[in-house]
Fold this protein.
Amino acid sequence: MTNSTTASALSASVYIQKKQRGVAALLITILIALIATTAVFYSSRGAVQVQRNTAGNYQLSIAQQAAEEGASQFLRQIQDDMESIQKSIQDDPNNPKPGKILEKESTPAGATSCIPGDGNFPYDFVKEYRAGETGSDRKTFKADKFVIPDTGYHAPIDSKDTLTALGIQQGSSWRVQGHIAGNRLYIRAEGCMGEDDCKAEKDSKDTLLPRAVVRRVTLLKGTLGVSSSALTIGQYYDNRTAIAAKEPTPGSGLPQCAVAYGDSYSQEGAGHYFCKANKNGGSGCEPQKEPGLKNKLFESFFGGMSKAELKASLPATNILAGCPTGTIDVEKDNYYWINGDISNCTISGGPAVVIINGTVSGSFTATGMIYMNNFNPQGSGTVTGKLIVEGYLDAAAPGTIINDAGGFPIANGKNDAEQSRTTHAGNSSLALFYKEYSFPSPPGGPKLDATSGNWIDF
């Protein structure tokens, strides 16, 4: 009895142990299965995320390519418009034809500063695109208006089947807006995945498809800078008398500044100047010092063009060697380049833009915008328009040894007029009649500067 009871107990214990081991094994199996399932799940999820990231990056890359293409196409059309408008102005100045995006500026901006600007962008956007009909609205796109490709733009796709499998929309396009301020053209180009989305003239920010925005700012070279100063001196003025600008006819207009100079101004006695602040002359019209005139004066007046660039743009017939006969005939609104020093010269005809790459001495008469290296004035003369002297207006170059009235040799300085050294200062009774002419851009311009700024928004 005792032995049988003991055997039964042992059998029950063995059974319980086996059952416990079975349960443990089952739990371990289930746990391993859960871990494997979780690993597979997260692995699949990671693969999907990688696919999504790859697809998203690709779409964004295509949108960026489209935006870059849009900005480039817009710039090419702007350049084509500028060239065709300039040609139509030459063919018929009174009836210039518009381009696809630009047209000739309706009312050129007048000069408001004593110093030259960088020139203005002498165009407006055509009526289809511009925000309005007055002022800056003519140079700004409507908020809901864009230039879009005529036939659509599709970025290159390597494998359409693969992209379709990834759920990537293959169509892409762009749209562009512009804004003109001064001599700068600002461009905003938007590239889109989804051709219809970019073509729609609406705000595409609501779309879930990738977009990229490229912005560019481009300078316009070769426009004529303007300033409201009758006499501009890059360096210094040393003349016994004041060259005071007057109106050619009463009410025709006076400059903002009678005289603007970069370094110093010296004259013998008091001058009487005329300007907008005082049409009767006197107080408020004194010569104004503008230190910025000492640097790159030519580029400031001629839209960033160097002398070599402007000269190279002129026909050979408009490049002259001095003034050998004492008279030069010029045609209205043309540009002329005179090489070398000239003396006692009359430039008849015009008004014209005349650049004298040398020193002018003696008497001088001209009509238009007259630019010269230096001026050694003696005697009379008349300039109607505006006179620009890059260097000095004086009896001679600074440092030149000249005998004074008593026969003593003295070096020429910048302030001899104030010291009554009659032989060392200019002695001109030049009559300067201020008039703001509207000249066309130089023959070599206008043109877009290839070195434009560029940045990308995501």
